[in-house]
Write a structure and sequence with these properties.
The protein has about 140 residues and is mainly alpha-helical. It contains 5 helices and 3 strands. A hairpin with a 2-residue loop joins strand 2 and strand 3.
């Protein structure tokens, strides 16, 4: 389970250091996406990921995890702490180094829909970084 950071093929010839640009984009987005998913509980459309069932919410309250029924994918914080920039072939991605966390993320997406994808705002951030690089001859 992961998110690959790629550039439009038409701009590749104009970027001097593609590796550094891709790494910069990934490093910029990793924290924003972690906060959106694991703290704010928002999916890739900017809406709530989902709602906890009454029984599970009781378990969260008893464990001191708060009383909000909004799904935030953060019970032990293991997933959010493992969400990171990962080198991949021809660039960088965002994902988990622990396969158990990747499996949990996959399950969450199957249950709740698109979570680990870029939001329109995150795409704008990526485009702004690319434009900055192109306009400043990096």
């Amino acid at each position: 389970m992961g998110l690959e950071i790629t550039l439009p093929t038409q701009i590749l010839p104009t970027v001097k250091d593609v590796d550094t640009l891709l790494r910069t984009i990934a490093q910029t987005l990793v924290g924003d996406i972690r906060e959106r998913i694991h703290e704010e509980g928002l999916n890739a459309k900017g809406a709530a990921i989902g709602q906890y069932t009454a029984d599970y919410l009781k378990r969260r309250i008893k464990a001191g995890k708060g009383s909000s029924s909004k799904v935030v994918l953060s019970y032990t914080r293991q997933m959010q702490n493992d969400w990171k920039v990962i080198p991949i072939q021809n660039g960088y991605g965002l994902g988990f180094s622990n396969s158990f966390n990747a499996d949990k993320a996959e399950w969450a997406q199957e249950r709740f829909g698109a979570i680990y994808k870029l939001t329109p705002e995150e795409i704008k951030i990526m485009q702004a970084i690319i434009n900055y690089w192109l306009n400043n001859d990096y």
